[in-house]
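Bumping with the actual sequence this time:
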Amino acid sequence: MEQKARYLLGKLYTLFKDVYLDELVDLKWARIYISKIITDEFQNYAEIETLENDPDEKISKIEAEMLKHDRKPAIYLTPFSLPSNLSEYLTGKNYHLSLEDAWMTLQKDYVIPDFSGASQIRHIDSSDELLNALDVVLTKGYLGEKSPDNPYGGTPMANFIEASKRGFRNKTFNNRLEGYLAYDNGRAVASSLLLYDGEAGYITAVASIPEVRGKGFGKLVSQYACMRSRHLGCKNTFLGTEVGSRNEEFYKRIGFQTEFTASCYVK
């Protein structure tokens, strides 16, 4: 589990670099990830290796570094974070649990339907039409209150959308980033994004607008992204979602399995 966690989280930084993540501060015992555009803890956090010696001093260094970037302190605990009781320690330091991620990989023997000729799917490019359609889907798709059925409800998406648009407009990312929109009666109703490097593909921004939920569009864009990941040569396709949510169960039904969990504490 620890080896898998190191691999996938390391890949996440490689794939997100310069698109959603802009800076890595390596303290050896922790790695601090900073996004210049996105301000929340989803993209700004300290991934812990160990706080075993002088934890108070180390936490103070993390907090100072994050505040220097005008980011609230966020601590990410993984299967390799030491010591094992860090959640209790952080709670005692006035941190609270913000999110708990299930890191999932697509099973290599899972048969993905062939959507290569799907007329409902359009690939996102740098055109204003498609980028504005992505904006609408993601904005509507993340509305509502956070709940087990809607684990990312209320997540501010404006900065993530801006970073995504920046990525699609930057030609240097043409071989690193793809996006897909599903259409219903001429209207974009669902989205997914794929960041890839030929070895691994990470699926994110899976969303559907509220009025079409339950009609299979979220499944369509998810499986289409999986198909594209394999087509692009990626041996590993992975994603992160909320532990115990309906999303986690949904992804299990379309070939994913949970490899490990990790949690983020914020102050």
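The tokens above came from a reply further down the thread. The chain has two domains: 2-104, 121-260.
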